[in-house]
Amino acid sequence: MVSEKRWYTFGQDPAILVALFANVLSWVVHTFFPSMLPWLIQTCDKEEKDITARVTGLTESAEVCPTQCISIGRPGGLEQLRLVQLKQGIATLGYNVSMGTAYSDPISDESDIPSNCVVLRNEAFSVNYADCTIRWGLYESARLFVGWPIVPGFDIAGTIERVGPGADSTWKAGDRVFGCSLFGAYSSRVVVPDIQIRKIPLHLTTAQAAALPAVSLTALYALDLAGQWPQASKYTNRSILIHSAAGGVGSMLVQMSRVLRMHPIVGVVGSPAKVDAAGALGCDIVIDKSTGTLWEQAAKAAPGGYAVVMDSTGVSTLRESYAHLAPTGRLIVFGYGSNLPMGKAALSPIEWLKMARKASQMPHFDPMDLSVSNKSVLGFNLSFFADEKAKVTELFDQIVTWLDEGKIRCPNVVEMPMDKIAHAHELIQSGTSVGKIVMTTQ
Questions:
Q1: Among 4, 5, 401, 428, which one is most buried in terms of CB atoms within 10 A?
Q2: How far apart, in Å, are the Cα atoms of 35 and each of 23, 92, 180, 401?
Q3: Do residues 218 and 249 touch, judged by C-beta distance below 8 A?
Q4: DSSP of 195-232, one letter per residue?
Q5: pTM given for the model
């Protein structure tokens, strides 16, 4: 797909300026005029207007109970996370089902379901830091492919309610499945392509299954880009450095690197409390960067440099991550945690200034140096999955096989009811959450 020409205002993408204004407005109102927060809420015509018709739970039959979802009407703070009930027959969906909207048309029978899709009675979805950036208006593919309002979320798990035309004939109503949606997962009913779901392994609960797709697919594709899967690397150096090794993606990277027999597996964590957890996952060496000796210990663990460095941290580590690659080494970039604010419910003007300063400090990699040093820098996010069905199938099948064989395991799960989504976002933003936060819809 050829990128369209972008227009800039004062040297910035106008969408970023809109997000800046909206977030600062939320911060001002939250800080000085909290009683006026409801004025910042935007509704849409897909929502049920008759408030008396709303249900209080999701225990009624699938035919009776309308979809409930978390809708975000505009960039902003936690006040934008609204639990809403949709009109009868409407479900949420990802942008690869219908571009430019978070909602389906009313579905009354199988013929109304988009081709090659199923309607999932979604019972659990996980919360990722990316969801906070969606709410702030900083997640580019969310802005480009969905817009506002948006229902965030990637991970889904529940029961197939209906099977649409063209879907695999092996799927049937009542099947217990998990998978991923390209947004739209914060919902009790999701329309999802059948290629993006698999049956839940028998040893997993629904909540555990919902914790897995995004982190495991991200980790395995990162190892694919690194040249370590599906065939093992032929190079003698198979060392790997994994930032945030006790986090969601990091914990999967550690386990998968162990399965792929990479050595040494060096994990980086942010506090002493996470050292044992990273070690238990399979790290040969765990570095606590709070000691201030991260790069000295990293160099000692792999004196010749690393074959792979997995970096989701961003500006605070990228330059040194590249410097610690071995010849033929690959730096895989899939996040920018240190560029973004932690522990902030709303983004104040000061936070925007901090983000701008950090963005100006991002390293630039010289193509000549890349060729002379025999190093590579590769970055990705999962939005490309919309078009790469064969790759999605390959990745997902491998993950399910490893789960069934017990070679990888689910992260610790913390369950919360759907109406506590604002608290979940607070925990994610704080950086102190332990385990994978999974919201239940019933």
A1: 428
A2: 17, 31, 37, 52
A3: yes
A4: GGEEEPPTTS-HHHHHTSHHHHHHHHHHHHHTT-SSSP
A5: 0.92
* Sequence letter at residue 408: I
Let me know: does 52 contact 36? Beta carbons within 8 Å. Answer: no
pLDDT at 85 over 90: yes
Alpha-carbon distance values, 280 to 92, 297, 365 (Å): 38, 19, 35
Query: Average pLDDT, stretch 139-158?
Result: 95
Residue 339 is given by DSSP the state G
H or E, element range at 92: strand 92-93
Burial class (CB in 10 A: 0-12, 13-18, 19+), 328: middle
d(CA 11, CA 1): 25
Cross-sheet strand order for the sheet of 240-242: 285-288, 265-269, 240-242, 306-311, 325-333, 376-379
Q: Among 52-66, 84-98, 208-222, name the one with the lowest average pLDDT.
A: 52-66
Rounded CA-CA distance 265/279 in Å is: 10
Beta bridge partners of 345: none
Q: Residue 5 pLDDT > 80, yes or no?
A: no
Tell me the pLDDT band of 2, cut-offs 50, 70 and 90: very low
Using CA atoms, how far apart are residues 432 and 337, in angstroms rounded to an integer? Answer: 14
Quote the tokens at residue 171. Answer: 């799927």
Q: Answer for the pair 119, 420: CB distance below 8 angstroms, yes or no.
A: no
In 263-361, which ranges are E strands? 265-269, 285-288, 306-311, 325-333
Q: pLDDT-based confidence at 185, cuts 50/70/90?
A: very high
Q: What is the chain's mean pLDDT, rounded? A: 91
Would the CA dihedral through 397, 398, 404, 408 be positive or negative? Answer: negative
Q: 300-347: per-residue pLDDT in tens?
A: 999 999 999 999 999 999 999 999 999 999 999 999 888 888 766 678
* Crossing angle between the packed helical segments 129-136 and 421-430, to the nearest 10 degrees: 110
